[in-house]
Amino acid sequence: MWHDNEVRFDISHSNMQLQSGELTVDKLDMIEDTKGNAGDLGKLIVTNLRILWHSLSLPRINLSIGYNTFITVNTKILHTITIRTSKFGPTLVILSTEASGGYVLGFRVNPLQQLHIIHKEVSILFSEFRKFPIFGVEYTFEHQASSQEEVNVEHFTEIQDNQSEISNVFGYYFSEGNTGQRKPNFSIHLGLAAEEPRESSTLQNLWELIPSCVN
Questions:
Q1: 0.70 cut: is pTM over it?
Q2: Whole-number Å distance between alpha carbons of 28 and 52
Q3: Is residue 120 classed exposed, middle or buried when 0-12, 13-18 and 19+ CB atoms within 10 A define those classes?
Q4: How does pLDDT run across 142-164, given as a tens digit for each residue?
């Protein structure tokens, strides 16, 4: 599981890429990081797992804030998300827990309408992640495979019953009455000469008892 258990700064390019189970939700350019005195413009990327920001002038200056980390009681990356008025103007502020570094991170987003939109997005994503965390692990239930096996067994049993019934009919036919040879006659149904069946049976009826799969 790759999830951060702390706010990470200046991470490698590979760690800035989308990870397993991660999807981009929003991207914003010209977002000012207000943690410095003068601030720095960069790109803010919102995913379903974390928030990423990197400087436009120096991409190696970046940070990654995960919504949550390992399944541990009270282990949270994001503590609160608020909009505050600072010397930079209305700012998206993220407060992290003491366990993750106790940072106060701010991002100035213009116009104000966009600031409220991004605030709502991050708040919803954070809330959903806490309810349904994604750990990058895919799985299937074992009972899904066993269900198909049970269907095949039932089908096979049905074929066995049909074969038994056919054998019983032929056995009954040849077991009673005179077993001597009868005069062969040409059968239109078969297209060849065959011994005449008993009075209670016809060649067509006997032929229909043989499954079509038998050669």
A1: no
A2: 11
A3: exposed
A4: 655 555 555 555 544 554 555 55
Terminal CA-CA length for the chain: 58
Q: How many CA atoms lie within 13 A of 140 on its CB side?
A: 5
**Sheet with 40-47, edge to edge strand ranges:** 8-9, 62-66, 50-55, 40-47, 24-33, 104-108, 89-96, 78-86
Domains observed in the chain: 7-131 (2.30.29.30)
**Of 123, 129, 119, 7, nearest to 65 (Cα)?**
7
Contact 97, 80 (CB under 8 A): no
**Greater model confidence, 214 or 141:** 141
Task: Supply the DSSP string of 45-87, one letter for each residue.
Answer: EEESSEEEEEESS-TTSEEEEESB-SS-TT-BSEEEEEEEEET
